[in-house]
Amino acid sequence: MFNKKSVDIAVLGAGPVGLTAAHILADQGMDFTLLERAAGTHTHSYALALHPDTLELLDTLGIVAPILQRALRLQRSTIFDPSNKQRAVIDYGALPVKYPFLAVIAQSDLEDILVATLAKKGHTPQWNHRVRCIEPSAEGVRFTVDHLMEGSTGYAIAHSEQEIDKIYEYQSNYMIAADGYESMARKAANIGFPEIKSSLDYAVFEFETNTRLLTEMRMMVDNDKTHIYWPLGKGRCRFSFQMPPNFAQKHSFNKDHAMVDNEAQESSELSNAHLDHLLHTHAPWFIGSSSDVKWRVMVHFEKHLADSFGNGRVWLAGDAAHMAAPAGILSMNVGMLEGADLAEKLSIDSNEDGRQFRLNAYNLDRVTEWRRLLDIDQNIQGQGNTAEWLLRHRNNIIGNIPASGNSYQAILEQLQLHESIAVS
């Protein structure tokens, strides 16, 4: 029943971030395992778009083609005020990059492609593998893994129909933690995860409509609230309406494998009548039908940033290290870049001094990047009518811009914004 295993690198979490790290490790011929508590890929999640820099990363991994075959390409994002006046435009088509657009794709489709292409490289996620009892040390990381299964024998798990089939005792040299905002690895490494800004509550609706949809992502700024529209293709769209505080239960949003939130179906706040009211109030430009709702959910977004992106042998990427506002899809996109960077730094050689040097550089780079993306130090400034309006609504805009990596600076310039960093 108890089996001992050892591996150079353990990757926790087979979402987009963990799968991206696994692709890099597979390409480099590294000794690794990819462990996932769930039985398979997610059916539904909030993340739904890839930035230009993320697409370039996926191109280097040789997997961008099947993603683009399924994706809807958007060359524009726009920002509107409460009077339905356009205040700013992001033109991805003007960027000097290989993929000058946002690629809208369901996270389920993205994960399916990442899993299928990883299999062609000779690796698959270890589904139904629950990690617990993580014990980092100077020499590595010890942890226990429960292989879960459906059935009536073994050790029963509370509140679950699954049972433990086998228990493994693992020893790894390093751990890449892509195990989400409640990361057990982050907690085991004693890395703080403070809330950096107030949380946000949203009512989210995906529905099929009978009108031709705008082929742009749109933010509607209304005082202290930011509402979001995404076209999804095939006559479907998603609206996310920011609601008053305490609308959604804390931690109500889980990247669940269930397509429909059954509790949400019974909520008056998520009824079709309330959706019509929200559309009329915040998106009067939308004139299509909205009765054919495919998914509705209350979402509670917290904003956190880890004190450090690693400690000793445990290193973080994605939601394990940060949570941001929803419009920019930053946590997934930047997280995939982080997973790749972390895997590359561990793959260059196995010299421990070299690895630790590169990992410390990873931490410095990531902390600096997120302080920029969230403008924690209030360095973003600008001139001109567009910039002045955007800066008056800084809390609505910063962290919601769908851009990351090398494209971020160019998009700030499109918005008449720039970073003014004091030199001491």
Task: Provide a descriptive summary of the structure in words.
Helix 1 (16-27) packs parallel to helix 4 and helix 8 runs antiparallel to helix 9 (352-373). Helix content is 29%, strand content 32%. Mean pLDDT is 92; it is low at 152-160 and 251-261. The protein has 424 residues and is an alpha+beta fold. It is built from twelve helices and 21 strands. Strand 1 (2-12), helix 1 and strand 2 (32-35) form a beta-alpha-beta unit. It has three domains: 2-48 and 108-193 and 306-371, FAD/NAD(P)-binding domain (3-Layer(bba) Sandwich), CATH 3.50.50; 198-302, D-Amino Acid Oxidase, Chain A, domain 2; 378-419, no CATH class. Strands 1, 2, 8, 9, 10, 11, 17 and 18 form an eight-stranded mixed sheet that branches. The chain has an eight-stranded mixed sheet with strand order 6-5-13-14-15-12-16-19, sandwiched between helices.
